[in-house]
Design brief:
heterodimer, A: alpha+beta, Alpha-Beta Plaits, four-stranded mixed β-sheet, B: mainly alpha, Formate dehydrogenase/DMSO reductase fold
């Protein structure tokens, strides 16, 4: 929590891996300053190659989206709405002097580490596993780059790294700094976050903290503050959850993400029915024409 | 550009942005009119479109032919069409154990690690099931073909030959069972994903892929010279089912969620493919142009497979399709 200094869970050493404690990230855009230190720290610690140098024209965001070489991504939202009790100016150009609300929201996006993870279920090699702390981890030496996790992720996080980058061909995403966690360290992004917009800690504690923060913000006039943690859908909650202002769609977050395994039953039923129908049709064809 | 001209240009951009909300072009998207009008987050994809290239639709095509050839081979063995059974098993073995694995391995990001596919057995992963189905199919089809050929050429005497015939029967039966799964699981593979246009059609896809596989196997055998009534009947059946699927696809629309099928170029491939292996193949067969009906069916089966991967790419990159599918 903010104000705890070196006692904050972001700075403390921990034993979560050894004690099998479920961990999480709570990311709060209302204190994010858009410095992108999390993006940089992630790249440096994990030695992630560059993801292109393109001026997007989309506010201050030239990162674009999460991908094989982008494991943290700071979103820059520009919305024509008030942020809390923000004072709205009335001298904007060409609007007849009327109210012209504007807000700038920053949110550090990351792999959600789903409770029911589409990528993990889809992986045919067993490369994607769940760790002791409940996070989802890709074992790079096992992945053969089949690409099935990519279409199975309801959040569009994981991706295959193209040639000629280092370790090309495999699927990559946030590791939740599993290597750091094993040594009792805090993930790089949370460690460097100067405002503790990214908080790392026990999932239970963070969920309580998130609820508290939403309550606090609502009282302070942020009427559209809510938690983004789809516990009601088949994803059954995410380990890296967010506080958002307004609708999830504006953040590129699906409103009702589903783990694709829920579609298996109807699809396999159609497959088995077709299999049986094909055998019968073929046998009938031969029986009646012989 | 001098300062005055540059300032004037900036004014123009601001004016345009104010009127239209967005000024097209990299780097000027939000100038002046700061509120982005694109859906979602600057129109960025919400889910990732598939990275699969041409190998995958081609594999769907050949995998379908392989699996259903084994079914035809089984029926041919049961009804004593030995030559047809041999041709069908050759087709199954070549497409199912040479072409299909080659295409699949080529599509991997790390082809040298293809054996990791058989590292685990996950019934909830259609990709894992597919790897095992293809392996089981090959394990039955190749020895089945060898046993059938040895039996047909009567290389061994008496009892051994009978034993071979028995073994061939069992193995071809196995190949047929795994073959039906090989031809249909590909529909489950793309149906059980986060791509809207695929999961919305998850019941149609296995029916389409399986039936297109059966019709393609029969069509290819007809083109190889096996013009028998049974294959003609299968041709009618497959084309009739595909016609029904074309109607289903045109009737059951999901609005913005599956607009990739109805609005985009790849969608045209899906629908043109369905016309070729549906009504057109049916008509050609009805008027007796059997080779042309076979060619039409094969072309349709291939083109629609390419189209289905294409619409998946379009739909995956379309944030509105994802939002619409969840509303």
């Amino acid at each position: 929590m903010i104000g705890e200094g070196t006692h904050s869970t972001n700075q403390r050493r921990h034993n979560y891996v050894r004690e099998n404690v479920e961990v999480g990230f709570f990311t709060d855009p209302t204190v994010c300053i858009g410095c992108k230190a999390c993006e940089v720290a992630c790249k440096e610690w994990n030695q992630v190659p560059d993801d292109g140098f393109i001026w997007s024209g989309n506010s201050y965001d030239n990162t674009g989206h999460l991908g094989a070489s982008t494991w943290r991504h700071v979103l820059f939202l520009e919305q024509d709405r008030q942020k809390g009790n923000q004072i709205v100016s009335s001298h904007s150009l060409g609007n007849g002097g009327g109210e012209d609300p504007f807000r700038w929201v920053f949110l550090s996006d990351v792999c959600k580490h789903c409770e029911e993870a589409g990528c993990l279920e889809a992986c045919p090699t067993g490369s994607i596993v769940r760790t002791e702390t409940g996070t989802v981890f890709v074992q790079d030496d096992v992945c053969n780059g089949c690409g099935y996790c990519i279409v199975s992720c309801p959040f569009g996080v994981i991706d295959r790294r193209p040639q000629p980058l280092a370790d090309a061909g495999g699927a990559f995403k946030c590791t939740f700094c599993y290597d750091r966690q094993k040594s009792g360290l805090v993930p790089a992004c949370a460690k460097v976050c100067p405002t503790e917009s990214i908080v790392f800690g026990r999932l239970d504690d963070l969920r309580a903290q998130g609820q508290q923060r939403v309550h606090q913000l609502r009282e302070a006039g942020y009427t559209d503050a809510q938690l983004y943690d789809p516990t009601e859908t088949s994803v059954r909650g995410i380990h890296a959850f967010f506080l958002i202002l307004g609708e999830p769609e504006a953040y590129g977050l699906p409103p009702k993400p589903q783990v694709p395994t829920i579609y298996l039953k109807s699809a396999w039923t159609a497959a088995f029915a077709t299999a049986i129908a094909s055998i019968i049709a073929t046998l009938v064809a031969f029986a009646f024409s012989s | 550009m001098d300062a005055a001209a540059s300032e004037k240009r900036l004014e123009q951009l601001r004016e345009k942005a104010w009127q239209e909300g967005v000024v097209p072009g990299r780097g000027v998207d939000v100038t002046g009119g700061p509120i982005p009008r694109k859906p979602g987050y600057y129109g960025e994809p919400v889910v990732k479109p598939p990275v699969w290239t041409w190998e995958v639709p081609l594999y769907f095509f050949f995998g379908g032919i392989a699996g259903m050839s084994a079914v035809i081979a089984l029926a041919a063995v049961l009804f004593h069409h030995v030559d047809l059974a041999r041709a069908a098993m050759w087709l199954a073995a070549i497409t199912g154990t040479i072409l299909s694995p080659t295409l699949l391995i080529m599509d991997l990001g790390r082809p040298h690690l293809f054996l990791n596919m058989l590292r685990v057995f996950k019934h909830r992963s259609p990709m894992s099931m597919g790897a095992w189905i293809l392996t089981a199919f090959g394990t039955c089809a190749v020895p089945g073909l060898i046993a059938l050929e040895l039996h047909a050429h009567q290389i061994f005497p008496g009892t051994l030959n009978q034993l071979l015939s028995f073994a061939a029967g069992i193995l071809i039966f196995g190949a047929a069972i795994f073959g039906t799964l090989l031809a249909t699981y590909t529909g489950v593979l793309i149906g059980a994903t986060a791509i809207p246009v695929w999961f919305l059609h998850r019941t149609l896809l296995p029916i389409h892929f399986g039936t297109a596989g059966l019709g393609s196997a029969a069509a290819l055998l007809e083109l190889l010279g096996h013009r028998i009534p049974a294959l003609n009947f299968i041709g009618y059946y497959a084309a009739a089912v595909e016609t029904a699927l074309l109607i289903w696809l045109s009737v059951a629309k999901h609005g913005a969620a599956d607009r990739a099928i109805h609005e985009h170029g790849s969608g045209w491939l899906v629908r043109i493919g369905e016309v070729f292996n549906g009504p057109l193949a049916l008509l050609l067969r009805f008027f007796g142009f059997i080779p042309w009906a076979a060619i039409s069916f094969l072309a349709g089966a291939l083109v629609s497979r390419i189209g289905w991967i294409g619409v998946g790419k379009v739909s995956g990159a379309d944030p509105e399709a994802v939002f619409a599918s969840q509303r």
